[in-house]
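Reopening this one. Same input as before:
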Amino acid sequence: ASRERGDHEWFEGHGRGVQSVACSADGRFAASVALDQTLRVWHLGSDRELGTWPSMENSTSASFSPDGRWIAAAGRYGQVLLWDVALAKQTRSLDPPAPSGSTALSDWGPGGLALASWDNKNTTISVWPTIDAQPTRLTIKESVRQIALSPDGTQVAIADASEVKVLEFPGGNELKTLGGHEDMIGDIEFSPDGQIIATASHDRTIRLWKLGSRRSIKTFTGHEDRVQDIAWSADGKWIASVDDQTLRLWNVETGQLARTLSRRNGSIHCLAFGPDGKTIVTGGLDNTVVVWRMFE
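Same output, byte for byte:
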């Protein structure tokens, strides 16, 4: 069921907190995975829910394929389940090289879908250019909590603590280390053109890094709590961020805060930009999925 108020509407249905949300490339659907071990798909612009399906224990991320045909969700032990949107059912899976203790799944971009699987000794990074292709894999001797794949699929950015490493893929050569945050990295995202990396941190800041430099080119400050999630608009002009209480919109060129939104008695934990650059979908630990109209 959905409800509407002012500049946002919200969907209710999950029984526990929402961990990840995603938008389809055509802007018609949003997907969410939650601690109630379900995946739900919502029809944006209406009060209709496309469907609810069992996900898996500790599902942490959801992502649409670029063509909108598939939704991927990853769980604690590394398996990625795939749902066929047209058929409205889970039909396939992508398996890690071995069961793992923790995983991180990238957004599904032009370069493919990347999964980092940590087995307490090594991390294996697997990239599927398409779901029918065999994955390309790289194993490194460190843990990974966050991962992002460049749009052209030639670089991966990874983080475990407060630093981000950029690696050549699949060769594994370390291209640079991005240091400057004072606390854990909450998210990493490449810009749509692949030239800038944005990092969000529990130190309450967001930093932008040019790929040709090891120093941050901008730092966004203003969050009052740790930054959990960030997303680029499709045109690369805006970054949205959430800190469990507020949704903030930043102008990339000027570095200025353009808008701050919050929900009374509501939580904002994760987000995804809609393809129109005007809509943002968020998920909260209050079990809701919210659609925000940012420029109304």
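So the earlier flakiness isn't reproducible anymore. For the record, The chain has a mean pLDDT of 90.
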